[in-house]
Amino acid sequence: MTHRLFMLDVPENTPIAAVARDAPGVEVDKLGPYFVIASEDPVTIDRRATGARHAVWYSCVGGLDGCRIAQWDKDALRLERR
Asked: What superkingdom heads the lineage (predicted)?
């Protein structure tokens, strides 16, 4: 079962989607005004690799489908299946 994270498609979030796209087994598409980050496996996005400032980092998640946030701190955002 694929799980998905929805993130508003704004310039501030583009680097986060780009880092996610480079992770193995992760697909990044668009649906309306959102990036959709999808994977069958757990996903970890390293904050430092994205260059996102803390305010952007902690406001990037717009919604979840089939997963939960297992880690969301200054280092990484990690998604796991429910």
From this structure: Bacteria
The predicted-structure confidence for 9-43, as pLDDT tens digits, reads as follows 999 999 999 999 999 999 999 999 999 999 999 99
User: What does the pLDDT read at residue 28?
Assistant: 98
Q: What is the DSSP string of 5-70?
A: EEEE--GGGHHHHHHHHTSTTEEEEEETTEEEEEESS-EEEEHHHHT--HHHHTT---EEESEEEE
The pLDDT tens digits of the residues spanning 34-48 come to: 999 999 999 999 999
Domains of the chain: 1-50 (3.30.1370)
